[in-house]
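INFO worker-7 received task bundle
INFO bundle size: 2
INFO processing item 0
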Amino acid sequence: MDALRRDLDAARDLLVDSFAAARRPLSGITPDAAAALVAQVDLDRPLPSTHAVLEEVRDVYLDHAVWFHHPHYQAHLNCPVALPAVVGDVVSAAVNSSLDTWDQSGPATFMERHLVAWTAQRIGLGETADGIFTTGGTQSNLHALLLARGEALAAGADLADLRVVTSENAHFSSRKAAMVLGMGEDAVLTTRADERGRLDVDHLDEVLRHLRAEGRTAMAVVATAGTTDLGAIDPLASVARACRRHGVWLHVDAAYGGGLLTSRRRRHLLTGIERADSVTVDFHKTFFQPVACSALVVADRRTLRHATHHAAYLNPVDDVAEEIPNQVDKSLQTTRRFDALKLWTTLRTLGPDRIGELLDAVVDLAAQVREDLVGDPDFAVVPHGDLSTVLFRFVESDVDAATLDAVNEAARKRLYATGLGAVARTRHDDRTWLKLTLLNPATTLGDVQHVLDLVRGHAREALAALTGATGRTEEVA
């Protein structure tokens, strides 16, 4: 135990020092330089002490890590983590419980089940609800569609006739899931989106009627509570009514927007989610948890049977009769970390209302940034969004759209290379746009304005380089 205490103390000191030394969100190291840095490590020759190993970790990893807690990191759906969650993760890693069977996990099984039940209650599902923790939204969505496929096949549908319907703005994981489930990517059909980027329910009705007329089976509709680029929340209540009319499984991918379950001000944006057959929630996004921490929650626990396999050495059928609580009966994974513990320690320390306040803060910030950008002549902005993403684009009069695409991409790369900030990019309306994803409650409007000014300066430099125009110049810090 002395060695554990010593090594944990050393790791703590290294982390505290590294966080304190992170003056920028990233070092700007290139892929080639990072590859060379790692390649020079001889894994066949161990170092003489934990201290030496940690120093190497500092040199190879921490000095070039991407720091999501830095207020100028504004790129992807990565959050700074709640400190109680770090404590829970350390405890979980040290004990190394495996949540597949009761005899490997003990009370951890019931702690995870309690958190699933809490999530189901927040969603508004009834007493028959259940679920399982997963590694992330992609796995949760796959699991949901596996269950929907199982229900459709049990009802007599043919695998070749199964279809999944999503919005054109839905996450790509539905297509991946269809491939894994033997249906093929073409089995996923998309509806139009409305002017705010949400699933068009009238078109959904048309698609579902057309499928029935063709003799196909709509296996599931995937609605999104928080699209990756626009932060749009589909009209869940209307989608749910359409699914009931057509007798179709409704899955709500709330990987991004699931944190609204804790918001006292914005919970209404999820109205209708309580009518879903399955829901994905990524706690490692808007609950401020370390990766990985996600869950799939289902309205009817009986549907989880489609993921069940009994192995004599692990979870024999006799265990069911004896009511032994083996979580592997519900999971796509076998060995599985106690990732629920970090959410447990966070809820027991901060409480759900505080999590909701932190989420509301970043959504408020995004709304303010959108409003400010509407009046900025150097940027176009998508002026709507339900969550904390902001799509914007450097513009210049009399410069064609294709050139501006290249300018915006160049500005993003130039900013990343400096290490002073990070924004993402995507395609919207067939053009290149830049994206702010604001998930750090410590980020201020001034921090965002600083990053936007950096983008502005880099964009002007890139435009001059591409067109030979001098234009306006501005020093880039």
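INFO item 0 finished
INFO processing item 1
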Amino acid sequence: MKRFFLLATLFVSGFSVSAQATKDSTQLRDFYDLALLSGNSYEWLDALSNEVGPRLSGSKGAEKAVEWAKAELDKLGLDKVWLQPVMVPKWERGAPEKAHIEGFDGKIEVPVCALGGSVATPDIGITAGVVEVQGLEDLANYGEAKLKGKIVFYNRPMQADLIQTFSAYGGCVDQRYSGAQEAAKYGAVGVIVRSMNLRMDDYPHTGAMSYGDLPNDKRLPAAAISTNGAALLSKMLKKNNNTQFYLKMNSKNFEDVPSFNVIGELTGSEKPNEYMVIGGHLDSWDLGDGSHDDGAGVVQSMEVLRLMKAANYTPKHSIRVVLFMNEENGLRGGNEYAAVANKKGENHVFALESDSGGFTPRGFSFDADAANFAQVESWIPLFKPYLIHYFELGGSGADIGPLKKDGIVLAGLRPDSQRYFDYHHASNDTFDAVNKRELELGAATMTSLVYLFDTYGVIPVKQ
């Protein structure tokens, strides 16, 4: 008799597991079908990119983006939609930059753009000799005797043999961020930095830079030069180390101005006080329209809630879409959201960010403990039909990073990144560079992960 009951229990248990797996598989299929057959992410991106346009923090474009995002979230019929105030930096590029190399054959114009936060050159520009270096650590090899009065040319490229292109980016972005601050210590008069781009082209890539605690009168103008321009300048310097470079920029910094994070919520049916966040950053750089960085993440995050409603799925936890302001040059939105959540005592258990472009999704990276990552790995068979295969520990996203604490799982969508840095922070980051199907697949993949965490929950940390 005892054996009969054991077999019956195992049968029921096995049936239950099988039934739940079937339910999960069916639910994921529904999300993918809805995203691919009647998705809204591409239409949203079209409007954000082509009607709103560039959205640099503190700009009129950023204000317009906030208005657009709130209006679109209001249309979804969520339980709550609101604006969260945050103060952000304001910087303007001004008139287009000008640069040329003065060599044996006369003046050769090269594409440059001011780095975000840079001061301007004098009105007439600057002309100076150039010293090429291979990174911050290389400055000491030249010293003040060779760098004073010169333009420092940081020409360390992204490491092409790294398959993970974000690792290649991380390996050289310090010269963009801190290059002017460090060169100023040696008496340099300006800085130009090879664009963070694996492709050889004529698009200079902007991005954030910092002067640290340098006083205003010690700050140097800093610009990015295209990869083709960098190659040409390096070649000319090898022929003639007295080659001169001319740079004119008109950028300007202002006092901080008010802006907003845009937040929408579906309130949980069982655990309304446990929050799960999906987000991207609403701001962009000013050269293109920010379709990959991070318009794609914005509309994919919005689409997660729309797909749940379209599938008549009622979440157990409260699920928020947070469209963060000022990721690009300050991270003010992410920090403010986390600070307010902490002040209110809100219990965030899971957060997912999309900020790696709108390319074909490959999977996710996680900042999680062993137990929760093991749970994620148990879901891999559910993603296999959609060619989602990358599930690795190692980071999540900049805007959700401030939420990190014991007991929360952070995740980042990981699309194929091989072409991402062709567009990142450049004028060709425009709507036409995003593929509709790839964008929609990413939204469905994000929705599927949120559904699974909502269904099974986050495994509590053992005390």
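INFO item 1 finished
INFO post-check item 1: The radius of gyration is 25 Å.
INFO post-check item 1: Confidence is low (pLDDT under 50) at residues 1-15.
INFO worker-7 idle
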